[in-house]
């Protein structure tokens, strides 16, 4: 498996010797909805710092009461698995059918379980 | 549409047998309805095409704020003003979702912005028409957002994951846009004779430019065939235009307004209306930069970008200073 790397593509053909740009960094935004669910990735945005990222996220991603809590993570801090690993990386769980409750036959007489 | 006349590789669509194994596997995933995600392998043409299409779409959302922004300070009531403001803010958000989707392909938002400002990248022809009266706010929401919805609803199923997800968010908000527009049209059409005349006039001016939003017929276009094979375009321009006309004509009738097309007629055989094509030479002229508001629109975007420079730089400098202080204190 290759080393964990960024969530964004690293494609040389799309970046032919571009000069380094001085831009507001990119933040990934996670929001917890009204109903006590975990934070969910909703999208991204640019902001100079974390405080502004959260304010911008409030303005863009909670315009219709979508959330009660916001996480902002700078995109470059996210480590991602690589798509090439898909098969081998997840393979260990494929053969372990006994991890699912349906693997076991429990007689009806036992009742709900 | 919001992305009109996006050119693909122009080489025609390869059959699966003509493809190298990697490309073939990619196409088979698309055929099977799988989503392509940012780090997956993709043909260079797919990436390039998507950047153009999503970029153009994003630019349209941003420039599209201008014709309606024009009326925020002159809305007839405080409630209408608040509604219009919310609608225009939504469009800024749509631009943001789309720029972010484009950024997952390896281009930065500021780069795309610079290409818009220099005129290298396009935005939808529709936003180069002026909004002359309050009734135009009705016509824009009803017709322009209505036409946009026609195109965006199927794009929720597009093959590129981040684009499809942006479309899902956008579509949720668009129906508010169209309804608020139609609501304005209803008020105007049921109002005084002068208000009704304004509503009819707005329909007259926006009808053909709205039909142009779908772009010229592309039934024989190799670009469109490739985009459709890649599922970054889901329907032909003519299909969408037909759907739009069929949906919109009864809505105009309900308002008691007349669609400015004498040839308009229900065709029982095809189960849709026959209607007149817009003037495509006007369309090409607008695309080239000669529409009534092209110069004004680009000038407004350039001014906003230039005027905002000190804010962008100032906030970045502040953030960097604070970050370095924090490091020094640790
Ligand atoms: Fe929009
Ligand atoms: Fe729009
Ligand atoms: Fe809209």
UniProtKB/TrEMBL annotation, chain A:
Coiled coil stretches, renumbered: none
Q: Origin, by domain of life? A: Bacteria
Q: Where is this region: Disordered?
A: 1-20
Under what name is this protein listed?
Ring-1,2-phenylacetyl-CoA epoxidase subunit PaaB
From TrEMBL, chain B:
- Which Pfam family is one of this chain's hits? PaaA_PaaC
**GO biological process per UniProt:** phenylacetate catabolic process
Cite a single GO MF annotation: phenylacetyl-CoA 1,2-epoxidase activity
Give Gene Ontology CC terms. cytosol
PANTHER family in the record, alphabetically?
A: 1,2-PHENYLACETYL-COA EPOXIDASE, SUBUNIT A (PTHR30458:SF2), PHENYLACETIC ACID DEGRADATION PROTEIN PAA (PTHR30458)
Name recorded for this polypeptide: Ring-1,2-phenylacetyl-CoA epoxidase subunit PaaA
- What species is given as this protein's source? Sedimentitalea nanhaiensis
